[in-house]
Amino acid sequence: MPYAMNEVDITQPLPTLIVPASDTGIALIVRRAGRPIDFVMLELPAESTLTPEDLSRLIGAHMNPERLEEPQPPIAAPSSLALFPSLTIAICTKDNPSDLATCLNRLLSVRGAEPEGLVEILVVDNAPSDSQTKDLVASLPGVLYVVEPKPGLDFARNLAIQEATGQIIAFVDDDVTVDHYWLKGLQKAVAEHPDAAAITGLVLPAELKTDAQILFEKRGGFEKKFGTTRYGQSLPGHPFYPCVGGKFGTGCNMAFRRQVLLELGGFDEALDTGATLPGGGDTDMFYRIIRAGYPLIYEPQFLIFHRHRREIGQLRRQYSRSWGLGLMAYVAKTYQYDVAQRSNLRRLVAWWFDNEVRELVRSIRGNHVLSPDMILAELWGGIVGLCGAYYRSRRRARQIRRRYSVPLNTAPDSSL
After folding, report:
1. CA-CA distance, 170 to 256, in Å (whole number)?
2. I need a labelling partner for 256 at 20 to 30 A (CA). Which of 4, 211, 317, 412 fits?
Protein backbone atom coordinates (compact mmCIF):
# COMPACT_ATOMS: atom_id res chain seq x y z
CA MET A 1 0.00 0.00 0.00
CA PRO A 2 1.27 3.51 -0.78
CA TYR A 3 3.05 5.90 1.54
CA ALA A 4 2.06 9.54 1.24
CA MET A 5 5.06 11.75 0.30
CA ASN A 6 5.35 14.98 2.28
CA GLU A 7 7.91 17.75 2.76
CA VAL A 8 8.30 20.00 5.79
CA ASP A 9 10.73 22.80 6.56
CA ILE A 10 11.55 23.23 10.23
CA THR A 11 12.16 26.96 9.73
CA GLN A 12 8.48 27.31 8.77
CA PRO A 13 5.33 26.54 10.81
CA LEU A 14 4.77 22.79 10.69
CA PRO A 15 1.55 21.65 9.00
CA THR A 16 -1.11 19.15 10.03
CA LEU A 17 -0.75 15.99 7.94
CA ILE A 18 -3.54 13.49 7.29
CA VAL A 19 -2.75 10.05 5.89
CA PRO A 20 -5.02 9.45 2.88
CA ALA A 21 -7.55 6.64 3.15
CA SER A 22 -5.68 4.64 0.49
CA ASP A 23 -2.28 4.86 2.22
CA THR A 24 -0.60 3.01 5.06
CA GLY A 25 2.02 5.51 6.13
CA ILE A 26 3.95 8.65 5.34
CA ALA A 27 7.38 9.47 3.96
CA LEU A 28 8.68 12.77 5.25
CA ILE A 29 11.41 14.85 3.62
CA VAL A 30 12.70 17.24 6.29
CA ARG A 31 14.40 20.47 5.28
CA ARG A 32 15.93 23.43 7.04
CA ALA A 33 15.71 26.66 5.02
CA GLY A 34 15.40 24.52 1.90
CA ARG A 35 18.31 22.21 2.67
CA PRO A 36 17.49 18.48 3.06
CA ILE A 37 18.42 17.31 6.55
CA ASP A 38 16.52 14.02 7.00
CA PHE A 39 14.17 11.46 5.48
CA VAL A 40 11.65 9.55 7.62
CA MET A 41 9.30 6.67 6.75
CA LEU A 42 6.54 5.83 9.23
CA GLU A 43 3.76 3.26 9.07
CA LEU A 44 0.44 4.76 10.16
CA PRO A 45 -3.21 3.73 9.89
CA ALA A 46 -5.17 5.23 7.02
CA GLU A 47 -6.74 8.60 7.81
CA SER A 48 -4.40 9.16 10.77
CA THR A 49 -3.69 12.76 11.67
CA LEU A 50 -0.30 14.18 12.63
CA THR A 51 -0.56 17.55 14.32
CA PRO A 52 2.32 20.06 14.23
CA GLU A 53 3.20 18.90 17.75
CA ASP A 54 3.23 15.26 16.59
CA LEU A 55 5.52 16.18 13.68
CA SER A 56 7.86 18.09 15.97
CA ARG A 57 8.18 15.09 18.30
CA LEU A 58 8.62 12.70 15.36
CA ILE A 59 11.41 14.77 13.80
CA GLY A 60 13.08 15.31 17.16
CA ALA A 61 13.02 11.59 17.98
CA HIS A 62 14.36 10.55 14.60
CA MET A 63 17.19 13.06 14.18
CA ASN A 64 20.44 13.57 16.00
CA PRO A 65 19.82 16.68 18.18
CA GLU A 66 23.13 18.21 17.11
CA ARG A 67 22.21 17.90 13.44
CA LEU A 68 18.74 19.26 14.13
CA GLU A 69 20.13 22.38 15.77
CA GLU A 70 23.28 23.06 13.75
CA PRO A 71 23.12 26.41 11.94
CA GLN A 72 22.68 26.40 8.18
CA PRO A 73 23.03 29.45 5.94
CA PRO A 74 20.19 30.05 3.47
CA ILE A 75 20.54 28.38 0.09
CA ALA A 76 22.20 30.60 -2.45
CA ALA A 77 24.33 30.26 -5.55
CA PRO A 78 28.00 31.24 -5.25
CA SER A 79 28.40 34.99 -4.94
CA SER A 80 30.23 35.22 -8.25
CA LEU A 81 28.32 33.08 -10.73
CA ALA A 82 30.69 34.21 -13.48
CA LEU A 83 33.36 32.02 -11.85
CA PHE A 84 31.20 28.90 -12.06
CA PRO A 85 32.42 26.63 -14.89
CA SER A 86 30.19 26.00 -17.88
CA LEU A 87 27.94 22.96 -17.43
CA THR A 88 26.49 20.26 -19.65
CA ILE A 89 23.61 18.25 -18.18
CA ALA A 90 23.50 14.90 -19.98
CA ILE A 91 20.54 12.51 -19.96
CA CYS A 92 21.22 9.11 -21.53
CA THR A 93 17.92 7.51 -22.44
CA LYS A 94 16.41 4.59 -24.33
CA ASP A 95 12.76 4.40 -25.41
CA ASN A 96 11.39 6.17 -22.34
CA PRO A 97 9.85 9.43 -23.61
CA SER A 98 7.25 9.75 -20.84
CA ASP A 99 9.75 9.83 -17.97
CA LEU A 100 12.19 11.84 -20.08
CA ALA A 101 9.60 14.57 -20.63
CA THR A 102 9.12 14.97 -16.88
CA CYS A 103 12.89 15.03 -16.32
CA LEU A 104 13.52 17.61 -19.04
CA ASN A 105 10.71 19.94 -18.04
CA ARG A 106 12.08 20.14 -14.49
CA LEU A 107 15.62 20.69 -15.75
CA LEU A 108 14.44 23.51 -17.99
CA SER A 109 12.67 25.06 -15.01
CA VAL A 110 15.75 24.73 -12.80
CA ARG A 111 18.03 26.12 -15.48
CA GLY A 112 15.62 29.04 -15.72
CA ALA A 113 17.38 32.37 -15.61
CA GLU A 114 20.97 31.12 -15.69
CA PRO A 115 23.16 33.24 -17.98
CA GLU A 116 22.96 32.20 -21.63
CA GLY A 117 25.57 29.63 -22.56
CA LEU A 118 26.40 28.67 -18.97
CA VAL A 119 24.19 25.55 -18.81
CA GLU A 120 23.35 23.28 -21.75
CA ILE A 121 21.08 20.23 -21.69
CA LEU A 122 22.02 17.27 -23.89
CA VAL A 123 19.92 14.16 -24.57
CA VAL A 124 21.76 11.06 -25.79
CA ASP A 125 19.29 8.68 -27.44
CA ASN A 126 20.76 5.18 -27.03
CA ALA A 127 19.88 2.72 -29.80
CA PRO A 128 16.31 4.06 -30.16
CA SER A 129 13.61 1.86 -31.66
CA ASP A 130 11.52 4.82 -32.87
CA SER A 131 11.57 8.61 -33.18
CA GLN A 132 9.56 9.47 -30.05
CA THR A 133 12.56 10.76 -28.08
CA LYS A 134 13.82 12.79 -31.04
CA ASP A 135 10.37 14.31 -31.55
CA LEU A 136 10.09 15.15 -27.83
CA VAL A 137 13.44 16.93 -27.76
CA ALA A 138 12.60 18.83 -30.93
CA SER A 139 9.54 20.24 -29.16
CA LEU A 140 11.57 21.65 -26.26
CA PRO A 141 13.58 24.83 -26.80
CA GLY A 142 17.21 24.82 -25.78
CA VAL A 143 17.68 21.02 -25.53
CA LEU A 144 20.34 19.34 -27.68
CA TYR A 145 19.94 15.88 -29.16
CA VAL A 146 22.35 13.22 -30.39
CA VAL A 147 21.97 9.50 -31.20
CA GLU A 148 24.31 6.78 -29.96
CA PRO A 149 23.44 3.71 -32.09
CA LYS A 150 25.60 1.28 -30.07
CA PRO A 151 23.40 -0.21 -27.31
CA GLY A 152 24.83 0.24 -23.84
CA LEU A 153 24.70 2.99 -21.23
CA ASP A 154 28.45 3.60 -21.14
CA PHE A 155 28.58 3.96 -24.92
CA ALA A 156 25.98 6.71 -24.47
CA ARG A 157 27.85 8.31 -21.57
CA ASN A 158 31.06 8.43 -23.58
CA LEU A 159 29.31 10.06 -26.52
CA ALA A 160 27.94 12.65 -24.08
CA ILE A 161 31.51 13.39 -22.94
CA GLN A 162 32.57 13.92 -26.55
CA GLU A 163 29.58 16.10 -27.47
CA ALA A 164 29.49 18.21 -24.30
CA THR A 165 30.84 21.75 -24.37
CA GLY A 166 30.68 22.34 -20.61
CA GLN A 167 33.72 22.16 -18.34
CA ILE A 168 31.51 20.21 -15.93
CA ILE A 169 29.29 17.37 -17.15
CA ALA A 170 26.43 16.21 -14.93
CA PHE A 171 24.64 12.93 -15.65
CA VAL A 172 21.06 12.31 -14.52
CA ASP A 173 18.86 9.35 -15.42
CA ASP A 174 15.69 9.84 -17.42
CA ASP A 175 13.54 8.56 -14.52
CA VAL A 176 14.59 11.25 -12.04
CA THR A 177 13.27 14.67 -11.12
CA VAL A 178 15.88 17.14 -9.94
CA ASP A 179 15.20 19.19 -6.83
CA HIS A 180 14.57 22.92 -7.23
CA TYR A 181 17.93 23.53 -5.51
CA TRP A 182 19.83 20.85 -7.46
CA LEU A 183 21.81 23.28 -9.61
CA LYS A 184 22.64 25.47 -6.62
CA GLY A 185 23.84 22.36 -4.80
CA LEU A 186 26.22 21.58 -7.65
CA GLN A 187 27.41 25.19 -7.75
CA LYS A 188 27.99 25.08 -4.00
CA ALA A 189 30.08 21.91 -4.22
CA VAL A 190 32.21 23.26 -7.09
CA ALA A 191 32.74 26.62 -5.33
CA GLU A 192 33.74 25.02 -2.02
CA HIS A 193 35.87 22.24 -3.56
CA PRO A 194 37.44 23.61 -6.76
CA ASP A 195 39.92 20.69 -6.85
CA ALA A 196 37.17 18.02 -6.94
CA ALA A 197 36.94 15.88 -10.06
CA ALA A 198 33.58 14.29 -9.20
CA ILE A 199 30.45 15.30 -7.30
CA THR A 200 27.60 13.05 -6.25
CA GLY A 201 24.44 13.84 -4.33
CA LEU A 202 21.45 12.72 -2.34
CA VAL A 203 18.87 10.44 -3.98
CA LEU A 204 15.38 10.26 -2.46
CA PRO A 205 12.28 8.44 -3.77
CA ALA A 206 10.01 10.31 -6.16
CA GLU A 207 7.08 8.12 -5.09
CA LEU A 208 6.29 5.22 -2.77
CA LYS A 209 3.22 3.78 -4.44
CA THR A 210 4.03 0.07 -4.75
CA ASP A 211 5.31 -2.74 -2.56
CA ALA A 212 8.55 -2.87 -4.57
CA GLN A 213 9.27 0.83 -4.07
CA ILE A 214 8.51 0.64 -0.35
CA LEU A 215 10.62 -2.49 0.13
CA PHE A 216 13.55 -0.86 -1.66
CA GLU A 217 13.45 2.13 0.69
CA LYS A 218 12.87 0.04 3.82
CA ARG A 219 16.01 -1.88 3.01
CA GLY A 220 17.88 1.41 2.77
CA GLY A 221 17.45 2.53 -0.83
CA PHE A 222 20.38 4.56 -2.09
CA GLU A 223 22.77 5.50 0.70
CA LYS A 224 21.61 8.71 2.35
CA LYS A 225 23.93 11.20 3.99
CA PHE A 226 22.79 14.69 4.95
CA GLY A 227 26.19 16.28 5.44
CA THR A 228 28.78 17.20 2.83
CA THR A 229 31.48 14.51 2.60
CA ARG A 230 34.87 14.89 0.97
CA TYR A 231 36.46 11.62 -0.18
CA GLY A 232 40.21 11.66 -0.73
CA GLN A 233 42.99 9.10 -0.66
CA SER A 234 42.06 7.69 2.75
CA LEU A 235 38.97 7.28 4.91
CA PRO A 236 39.72 6.73 8.62
CA GLY A 237 37.90 3.78 10.10
CA HIS A 238 37.11 2.12 6.78
CA PRO A 239 38.92 -1.26 6.46
CA PHE A 240 39.06 -1.56 2.66
CA TYR A 241 38.83 1.98 1.29
CA PRO A 242 38.69 3.02 -1.55
CA CYS A 243 37.03 -0.28 -2.49
CA VAL A 244 33.66 0.77 -1.07
CA GLY A 245 31.01 -0.14 -3.65
CA GLY A 246 28.12 2.33 -3.57
CA LYS A 247 29.34 4.56 -0.74
CA PHE A 248 30.57 7.30 -3.12
CA GLY A 249 27.18 7.84 -4.74
CA THR A 250 25.18 6.56 -7.67
CA GLY A 251 25.10 7.02 -11.42
CA CYS A 252 21.64 8.56 -11.61
CA ASN A 253 23.05 11.76 -10.06
CA MET A 254 26.73 12.49 -10.66
CA ALA A 255 28.91 15.23 -12.10
CA PHE A 256 32.54 15.36 -13.26
CA ARG A 257 35.21 17.65 -14.55
CA ARG A 258 34.96 16.79 -18.23
CA GLN A 259 38.71 17.06 -18.76
CA VAL A 260 39.34 14.45 -16.07
CA LEU A 261 36.93 12.03 -17.75
CA LEU A 262 38.82 12.54 -21.01
CA GLU A 263 42.15 11.96 -19.26
CA LEU A 264 40.84 8.69 -17.79
CA GLY A 265 39.56 7.45 -21.14
CA GLY A 266 35.87 7.76 -20.35
CA PHE A 267 33.57 5.10 -18.92
CA ASP A 268 34.38 1.43 -19.37
CA GLU A 269 32.06 0.32 -22.16
CA ALA A 270 32.20 -3.31 -21.03
CA LEU A 271 30.16 -2.27 -17.97
CA ASP A 272 26.51 -1.14 -18.13
CA THR A 273 26.03 -3.08 -21.35
CA GLY A 274 22.31 -3.71 -20.93
CA ALA A 275 20.37 -6.68 -19.58
CA THR A 276 23.44 -8.95 -19.48
CA LEU A 277 25.43 -6.56 -17.26
CA PRO A 278 23.31 -3.52 -16.29
CA GLY A 279 25.65 -1.90 -13.78
CA GLY A 280 29.14 -1.19 -12.56
CA GLY A 281 30.08 1.76 -14.76
CA ASP A 282 29.44 4.45 -12.17
CA THR A 283 31.17 2.54 -9.34
CA ASP A 284 34.15 1.90 -11.60
CA MET A 285 34.47 5.59 -12.51
CA PHE A 286 34.19 6.81 -8.90
CA TYR A 287 36.93 4.38 -7.93
CA ARG A 288 39.18 5.41 -10.81
CA ILE A 289 38.72 9.09 -9.91
CA ILE A 290 39.96 8.41 -6.37
CA ARG A 291 42.81 6.18 -7.54
CA ALA A 292 43.93 8.90 -9.96
CA GLY A 293 44.43 11.19 -6.94
CA TYR A 294 41.37 13.43 -7.26
CA PRO A 295 38.84 14.28 -4.51
CA LEU A 296 35.20 13.24 -4.84
CA ILE A 297 32.53 15.31 -3.07
CA TYR A 298 29.15 14.11 -1.84
CA GLU A 299 26.78 17.09 -1.49
CA PRO A 300 23.23 16.46 -0.15
CA GLN A 301 21.91 19.73 -1.59
CA PHE A 302 22.72 18.21 -5.01
CA LEU A 303 19.43 16.33 -4.66
CA ILE A 304 17.30 14.32 -7.05
CA PHE A 305 14.13 12.26 -6.72
CA HIS A 306 14.31 8.83 -8.34
CA ARG A 307 11.34 6.74 -9.46
CA HIS A 308 12.24 3.32 -8.09
CA ARG A 309 11.25 0.05 -9.80
CA ARG A 310 7.51 -0.40 -9.44
CA GLU A 311 7.25 -4.18 -9.80
CA ILE A 312 8.63 -6.88 -7.51
CA GLY A 313 10.15 -8.67 -10.49
CA GLN A 314 11.94 -5.50 -11.56
CA LEU A 315 13.27 -5.00 -8.04
CA ARG A 316 14.53 -8.59 -7.90
CA ARG A 317 16.38 -8.06 -11.20
CA GLN A 318 17.86 -4.82 -9.85
CA TYR A 319 19.27 -6.58 -6.79
CA SER A 320 20.52 -9.49 -8.87
CA ARG A 321 21.84 -7.80 -12.01
CA SER A 322 22.55 -4.13 -11.26
CA TRP A 323 23.73 -4.54 -7.66
CA GLY A 324 25.06 -8.07 -7.24
CA LEU A 325 26.33 -8.75 -10.77
CA GLY A 326 27.37 -5.16 -11.53
CA LEU A 327 29.32 -4.72 -8.30
CA MET A 328 31.25 -7.97 -8.59
CA ALA A 329 31.99 -7.48 -12.30
CA TYR A 330 33.62 -4.17 -11.35
CA VAL A 331 35.52 -5.95 -8.56
CA ALA A 332 36.78 -8.65 -10.96
CA LYS A 333 37.94 -6.03 -13.45
CA THR A 334 39.67 -3.96 -10.78
CA TYR A 335 41.32 -7.01 -9.23
CA GLN A 336 43.05 -7.70 -12.54
CA TYR A 337 44.14 -4.16 -13.36
CA ASP A 338 44.88 -2.62 -9.93
CA VAL A 339 47.26 -5.06 -8.29
CA ALA A 340 48.03 -2.69 -5.40
CA GLN A 341 44.43 -2.88 -4.18
CA ARG A 342 43.94 -6.65 -4.35
CA SER A 343 44.00 -7.12 -0.57
CA ASN A 344 41.34 -4.43 -0.13
CA LEU A 345 39.24 -5.97 -2.88
CA ARG A 346 39.45 -9.38 -1.20
CA ARG A 347 38.27 -7.79 2.06
CA LEU A 348 35.40 -6.10 0.22
CA VAL A 349 34.30 -9.42 -1.32
CA ALA A 350 34.55 -11.22 2.03
CA TRP A 351 32.53 -8.50 3.78
CA TRP A 352 29.89 -8.46 1.02
CA PHE A 353 29.28 -12.21 1.05
CA ASP A 354 29.27 -12.31 4.84
CA ASN A 355 26.70 -9.50 4.90
CA GLU A 356 24.54 -11.21 2.27
CA VAL A 357 24.53 -14.50 4.22
CA ARG A 358 23.63 -12.66 7.43
CA GLU A 359 20.74 -10.91 5.66
CA LEU A 360 19.59 -14.23 4.21
CA VAL A 361 19.54 -15.87 7.65
CA ARG A 362 17.57 -12.94 9.07
CA SER A 363 15.13 -13.18 6.17
CA ILE A 364 14.60 -16.92 6.66
CA ARG A 365 13.86 -16.21 10.31
CA GLY A 366 11.35 -13.52 9.33
CA ASN A 367 13.45 -10.60 10.61
CA HIS A 368 14.19 -8.87 7.31
CA VAL A 369 12.09 -6.63 5.05
CA LEU A 370 13.09 -8.68 1.98
CA SER A 371 12.02 -12.25 1.28
CA PRO A 372 14.76 -14.90 1.00
CA ASP A 373 14.40 -15.13 -2.79
CA MET A 374 15.28 -11.44 -3.13
CA ILE A 375 18.50 -11.81 -1.16
CA LEU A 376 19.35 -15.07 -2.90
CA ALA A 377 18.94 -13.27 -6.24
CA GLU A 378 21.43 -10.61 -5.18
CA LEU A 379 23.80 -13.24 -3.79
CA TRP A 380 23.64 -15.27 -6.99
CA GLY A 381 24.23 -12.14 -9.05
CA GLY A 382 27.42 -11.50 -7.08
CA ILE A 383 28.63 -15.05 -7.69
CA VAL A 384 27.99 -14.73 -11.44
CA GLY A 385 29.75 -11.36 -11.42
CA LEU A 386 32.91 -12.90 -9.99
CA CYS A 387 32.81 -15.83 -12.39
CA GLY A 388 33.84 -14.15 -15.63
CA ALA A 389 30.93 -11.74 -16.23
CA TYR A 390 33.24 -8.79 -16.95
CA TYR A 391 35.32 -10.70 -19.50
CA ARG A 392 32.23 -12.03 -21.25
CA SER A 393 30.95 -8.46 -21.38
CA ARG A 394 34.22 -7.26 -22.90
CA ARG A 395 33.70 -9.74 -25.72
CA ARG A 396 30.17 -8.46 -26.24
CA ALA A 397 31.43 -4.87 -26.28
CA ARG A 398 33.99 -5.78 -28.94
CA GLN A 399 31.27 -7.40 -31.02
CA ILE A 400 29.13 -4.27 -30.73
CA ARG A 401 32.03 -2.05 -31.81
CA ARG A 402 32.76 -4.30 -34.80
CA ARG A 403 29.10 -4.23 -35.76
CA TYR A 404 29.24 -0.44 -35.82
CA SER A 405 32.85 -0.27 -37.10
CA VAL A 406 34.18 1.49 -34.01
CA PRO A 407 37.78 0.79 -32.88
CA LEU A 408 38.23 -0.83 -29.46
CA ASN A 409 38.83 1.73 -26.72
CA THR A 410 41.16 0.12 -24.17
CA ALA A 411 41.68 3.27 -22.10
CA PRO A 412 39.61 2.16 -19.10
CA ASP A 413 41.86 -0.89 -18.67
CA SER A 414 45.09 1.13 -18.72
CA SER A 415 43.94 4.06 -16.61
CA LEU A 416 45.14 2.79 -13.23
Report:
1. 6
2. 317
